[in-house]
Records
---
Amino acid sequence: MAASRPPAAAAAEAALNSLSKIQISSTPPPSTTASERSDDVSTSEGAYERWSSAVGNIEDAKVAVDIMARAIEDAVYLDEDAYNQMIPMQQYTRTIEEQQRQILNLEHQLQNTLHSAAQQKATGQASRKRAVELQEELENNAAVFKLHYDELLAKDAEIAKLKAVIQGLSSGK
């Protein structure tokens, strides 16, 4: 039955077992030399107080881990059937969350693509409008050029007539 327990409950129990193996002693650690033992009494009392507070901290930690282990077991491990039914639900929930993240990512990509397409469309329309404007300007310039050309031809013809008249008048004298 312990093998089918949830990992959190098993981990909490293992932590509790490892803490219960700690030997708690209220005596301070022995000094290495006799001179250290006979040194200042206040120093040894300070060391004893620090050692006592360290032991108290370990005892407090052991109690806290025991309380956490009980809370985790009560909260996570109801019974084997409930735990086994929750595993597929958790996998289904994770799958749904991942699919929702993918949907959001795809929606973001779609928005970027639509924005890019709108910009390209606007740029294309502006380009087509500019091409039409340039075409109209070219046609207008061609019409003006044709008018000037026709006018130059008319003036050339008139100059040729005037030259013929002048020649005719100068040869007739």
---
Amino acid sequence: MNVGHFDRYSSALSTVQVLSAAEDPLLTEGLLVEAYPIAARIDFLRSIASVLLDCRFAVGVEGNTAILTVSGALLFATRGHREPVPQQMTIVEWLPRITDVWSADIPINWTGPGQMEIGGSNVLFVSGDVPGMDGAPPDFTSVDQATIAEGLANWESEFLATQYSLLDLP
């Protein structure tokens, strides 16, 4: 398997199904609507940005969790008003595009309209399941932070990849 810039993942992805173009959130609008970002990691030294997504209600994703990783990261930004308490940020529109790089403008809703943007020359999207995350997500309005955290995947959660897509642009 040739996964270009993401060679370090090739053995982990060798048994995972490749998404068709119609099922691929990197190419198809709307597939991540109703997913919500849980966490992001940025490695400035290697120019990599990753977003962990809860996909229990996502329109077009198989699995309850996904990871979007962009290298050659040219863009990673969020804008909008946030309260200093845990809040669900729901993706309300998913608009991927390819010019000389891949990017997505992602309108999100938290306590009002917001925006997340991510883009780069190499993009890996992996969907799958985190065991125990098949039920409803936590109620962000009536429980404490520890209970909310227990009801969401995190970077240390066991993740069983089922599908992936890769774009390695020149």
